[in-house]
Every structure is written in structure tokens, then in C-alpha cells.
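Thread title: Can someone regenerate the structure for this chain?

I was given the following input by a collaborator and told the matching C-alpha cells would be attached. They weren't. Posting the sequence so someone can regenerate them.
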Amino acid sequence: MDYQQIESFLAIAKTKSMNRAAELLYISQPTLTYRLRKLEQELGYQLFIRKKGQHITFLTPEGSTFLPIAERWKAAFDETNVFKVSGANTQIRIASTSSLNAFAFPNLYYKLRSFADSLDIRSYHSYEIYSKVSIQELDIGFVFHESQFQDMQTVPLFSEKMRFICNGKEFDDQLTIHPINLHPSNEIFTDWGMEYRQWHKYWFGESAHPYVHLDSIPLMEHFFLSESSWTFIPDSVLASMPKLNKYVRSLSAPYPPDRVCHMVTNAHHPIRDFRWGNQFLDALNEFLATSPWLTDLYHAQDKTPYIK
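Best answer:
Regenerated them for you:
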């Protein structure tokens, strides 16, 4: 019996639907069915029954008896995790997308080391971060994709602008450049997220083939030495690659949307509940207030960090 099995059982009991429970947990229905089957095998009882011709899933008598036990089990598990992360040692478990870890947050992590006994910093895709925060493998996540997960709190932290950089001499006499004059075969493409992909598809179509497709941003400077190459990068990356500043150019069409960074936490374990919570928020506030490449700080009219 594990947390995911109990969580799946409670979601089915709450929604009375396998489909809705799977959507609520952001997992596939086969995965949900597998978890339920393993739980039933361990308990030795069938917990749900679906009547013929109905989409509603009902608790069996054994399932009704097990329901309050499962609720107490989950509550005890959650409390145990709070005790583990709030004990004598100050460990902070954080995950971000790779570009945030490499270019945006090094200064923040340095500040955290002043009071944390241990930092566990990982790089994951956004959907992985949501999942790991949900099951409490992580305390905090930073993502660029907002999703509505059960029992999760997702709040915007800041946004940053995308910059156009171009090494093409044919554009030297132009104050602004229009996307239709850019050749995809000269592009250094990096996937900056769903909104960037939509913008890119609008201007260059689905069949565009870039000069190089990078998922390792530190290689950007190397490939950008190629004649006529061009790309888009966020301000946090540009701030870490000052050699590229001389190639920043203006577009005569709308830029890609700003990237919005969200902080993800488990709704049952807000940051202030951790013994390091207030220190973390102070460090985050200082980081936000002193990072010049940020465009906006959200949630307050005066543009102060939302956690104040």
C-alpha cells in the first residue's frame, strides 16, 4: 500500500467516476485502474463496483468501511512528511526547469545555503515538477507552465521578456527586422515553452527546419558564431551571456510572449509551515528585488513580490 494507491482510491470515492478521478490526478485511466487493482489485491477486497449501463462508480460495503481508514492513512502520511522536512536538519528540496536552474536561480540558491543544511536541487520538465510536488518528493517547484493540479498551489512569481538576437550582416542597415525576412534554415532553435512554440508556428509554420535545435543552452554562444544565425532567448539567459548583447536587434512585429515563472507548492504544506519557510521567503524576496532582468513581479499593485 502506498501514497499513490490511497490517493487514487480517495479520488475515485470523491468523484464517483474513474474518468474524472484520472483527470483530477492528471494520470491515464489505465494507470488509475492499475493502482486500484494493486490496492484491492493487497487488501483482499473489491472496493468499487460499476453498475451495468451506468458511468457512476459506487463503493462496495468493504470500500465504505475502508474510506475513513484511507483518509486517516493519508492524513498521517502528510503529517509524517511535514515532520520529516521540519525536523532538526534544514533540507530544502527544489526543482526547476533546466534553464531556470542554470541561468535564473544560481544567486537564489546561493542565498539559501546561508541557512539550509542541505539543498537538493533538480532539473525536471514542468509536468514532472507538478507530479513530484503533489506526492511530496519536492517541497517547491518553479515552472513556466501553469496547470491546475489537485491539492496544489500555483502562483506567478515574475515574467521576463524574450530578446531577438541576429548575426546576419544583411540586416545591418535595418533598424527593425520582420519575422517574414528570417530564414528558418539559419535559426538556432530552443524550445522555450508552449506559448513560444505557438508564436513560432504562427510565423514559421510547422515544417520549418532550423539550422540547429538546442536543448543545451550553454552551446548557444558556440553556434551563434555562424554567419546569419538568429534566435530568441529570455533576459535571464542573455544576462548570463553578455557577449551576445551586441547582437540584440529589434523586431517590427510582436515579440514572443513573455515567459511567466510560477512557484508550485503542495497546498497542504505551505512554505511557512516549514521551519525554514520564513527564511526562504525572505531570500526569495531579496532575489526578486535585485534581479534586473525581471519584467514584472506579480500579485501586488505596487509590483512588490507577492510573498510580502
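The chain has eleven helices and 14 strands.
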